[in-house]
Amino acid sequence: MHLDVAVDILKKAETSLVSYRDTGFADAQTFAKEICEEMNVEAALKQKRLRTTKRQFSYEAPDEPITDALKKMEFSFFNVVVDMAIESLREKTGMMSDVAKKFSVLINFSDLTSSELEKQAKDLCNTLTSGDHFDLNYDELIVEMQSFPKQWPKQNMTTLDLLVFLEEKGLKEIYPNMWVALRIAVTTPVTVASAERSFSKLKLIKTYLRSTMTQERLNGLAIISINREISKQISDIEPSPDPDITVYREDDGLFGFYE
């Protein structure tokens, strides 16, 4: 999935959750009552006995307890869960939108004024510059965008669609800077889950019998296990710096030691 598509989907999900916050609890009550009727169960929540606690003198008045069980469930559980989901989406959407905004000039340049085009193109070139190394030439990129066919890009066109258009029409040599920028835009990962998946290897590496394993050794085994593709190229038996230890590789690519 590409950045512009992912940002659009996340914004729609956020809008859907905001709407669900207003109507979701009532819909859940209706659905729960239907299930209770099918199971011949009383559709009612029992209110727990309110506990009173001693309070020291304070200038602030205590909040009045909620006596309605449904209201308490809505405020203390439903709204809290949905608000956390909405805030998490907003945080992720905000970070991805900042990156996608840098590349938005590649598909919106036909709708921009000259000053806006120059400003956004400059921001994109600066983003893809590191020290003396740069991926785009600012002056050439402006000329390419200004000379691009007026009917392209079309409305609701993605960066991948425009990249495919340049490839099919054989225009990548005429618009080399746009070609490079579009390739970077479509290959920028939306999420990186390899680090998260690598944690599942820890329980295979550091077992109960290996509880005394040092941090250095654990790091080494984890790196070998995570980089499975590279580790497959290593021979099955490798000499170890320690003459009393032999390195072996199991069928699943996990390395271990014979002591």
Question: What does this entry look like structurally?
Answer:
By secondary structure, the chain is mainly alpha-helical. The chain folds into 3 domains: 3-47 and 61-100, no CATH class; 104-187, no CATH class; 194-258, no CATH class. Helices cover 56% and strands 5% of the residues. The chain has helices spanning 3-39, 69-103, 105-108, 114-127, 138-146, 159-168, 176-187, 194-198, 202-205, 215-226, 228-231, and strands at 129-130, 133-134, 237-238, 246-249, 255-258. It has a 3-stranded antiparallel β-sheet with strand order 3-4-5. A two-stranded antiparallel sheet has the order 1-2. Helix 1 (3-39) packs antiparallel against helix 2 and helix 6 crosses helix 7. It is extended and about 75 Å long. It starts with a helix and ends with a strand.
